[in-house]
Amino acid sequence: MTARAIWKGRLKLNSTRVPVKLYSAVKDQTVRFHILDGKSKTRVKQHMVEPESGKEVPHEEIRKGFEVEPGTFVILDKEELEKLEPEESREIEITQFVPPEKIPPEYYDRPYYLGPDGDQTAYFALAEALKNKEKEGVARWVMRKKPYVGALRAEDDHLVLFTLRHAEEVLSAKDLPHPAGRASDKKELTMAKQLVEMLKGEFDPKDYKDEYRERVMEFVEKKAKGHKPRLHLVKTKRKTTSLDMVLSKSIEALKKKKAA
Amino acid sequence: MARRKAAKKSRSDDGNGQARGVRPFWSGTLTFGLVSVPVDLYPGNRTNRAPLRMLSAEGEPLSRRYFSQKTERDLEDDELVRGFEIDKDRYVVVTDEELERLAPEQSRDIDLRRFVPLKDIPPLYFDRSYFLAPAAGSEKAYKLLAETMAKSDLAGTATFVMRGKEYLVAIFPENGILRAETMRFADEIRSAGEVGLPEKKKLPAATVKKFERLIAKHSRRELSLKDLKDEQTEKLLKLVERKRKQHKDIVEVEVPEREEGKVIDLMAALKKSLAGKRKAA
Questions:
Q1: DSSP 3-state assignment of B155?
Q2: Contact B186, A203 (CB under 8 A)
Q3: CA of residue A157 relative to chain centroid, distance
Q4: What ipTM, to 2 d.p.?
Q5: Which of B127, B137, B212, B249 is the most exposed place for a label (fewest CB within 10 A)?
Q6: 3-state secondary structure of A25
């Protein structure tokens, strides 16, 4: 089955254009709940009200304002806000290429597969060239009246376009102070390193399961059938001991596990 | 993380999702081996730099309220429940307590059971970013973990349950601070085949070469953050500033006492927390 494209555009590199279609690369598996009126168990809606009187304010009467200081708003009308909207375009402009590790994880937002829209040769050639050169493109485009910045990357043979967070939205650890407290001592560092080495492995996403999601769904199904499953809260107690004692105990425990 | 609809939305919410005051998003325990490190979790992103408030014709900030579709009456927080739709208009109600009890205590710890090279995690998995700050008394173990990981370029991985959802997370140090990047689970990512993308055919080497030359010509060693700037928000802030100076379209309303001065910068809260000065929230 072929997924439906959510948007069509053209990758623009200098004077070269590669027509593409966008597909969501994500399928959200979160258990979705609805908010209900507790009494009638029916859906609720939201509306905007004056907080004091509780009076509903219809959509067309709502004004928008930017709070410049507590209680002081600069009102922006519809025309002003429309003027701020970017010009519509189908072009995904690639402004630069960088080594992939130069884009930090915290910038990545949502991934979209790109599929060829017509010319397959240019599409696959670009993907291959990105792979050969070990580069990622930095992109800028306007989609449904919203401006985006993004990263273009080859995943196996195909192209993936990520939306990236704007530079202003990302907090950098460089602007934060080092955590307080004295430096770790050598013995502890050696033991901690040994412990981490023992826990070292490959990243295989299939090794991680959302067990909680399964548990919630199982519970919901049982409840739907009229059962009332009993749930217990299991308490565990943690002992506090010195750091190097805990470290050496951890190493011993792991060694035993590996030997077994 | 905040994408999940909260059944109990606070009344003090201004309807624009703007947080008043910054508190840790979550407090819990990070463990590796038998070492446990109590931590506070803070958001690593500012999502909306220029949130617009919805106002009445007189300029009064409005509140978002839930109302029943059946009775058309506004509902208080304690009149709302969370329901899973099993058939059209048929719901199974699930309480906060039940969701809580479905998560064994163990599953709430971030237990770093596997350390992997950070560069081996494809960006397809990255979702949202958070910072971990040491909670009172855990500075020593926190620093030890951060230092150890910094030397090896590894990220600790774990799954844990927070606020009614299980998260897959990669934790790695940055400037001595632990960053927690939540990730998608494998079954939340489509493959190219699932999407129905065509398979690669034989390519003329000259076309690949042409793209390689283009890439080489526009390559840079470092990412220029200039290209990631939010120009639209910049324009909006400039417009606001201009109108303010011209005293145009400005309304002033009384602010309830308790709200005043409570807008704390996320950065300031984090700094305090890292300096070990955070007061109990």
A1: strand
A2: no
A3: 23
A4: 0.90
A5: B137
A6: coil
On whether the CB atoms of residues B40 and B22 are closer than 8 A, the answer is no
A254: closest CA of chain B, how far (Å): 8
Q: In terms of CA atoms, which chain A residue is nearest residue B122? A: A155
**Six-digit token string for A79:** 């025309």
* Vertex A201: Cα angle to A199 and A205 (nearest 5): 120
All structural domains of chain A, each given as residue ranges with its CATH number in brackets, are 7-27+85-168 (2.40.290.10), 184-201+236-260 (no CATH)
C-alpha distance from B280 to closest chain A C-alpha (Å): 17
pLDDT tens, residue by residue, B183-223: 999 999 999 999 999 999 899 999 999 999 999 999 999 99
Strand partners, A163: A150
- Contacts B150 to A, Cβ<8 Å: none
Choose between A246 and A56: higher pLDDT.
Answer: A56
For residues B20 and A41, which has the higher predicted lDDT (pLDDT)?
A: A41
Judge: domain B13-49+79-189+259-281, CATH 2.40.290.10: yes
Give the tokens for residue A54.
Answer: 């509780």
pLDDT tens, A104-120?
A: 999 999 999 999 999 99
pTM for the full predicted model: 0.88
Q: How do A42-49 and B154-162 pair as beta strands? A: unpaired
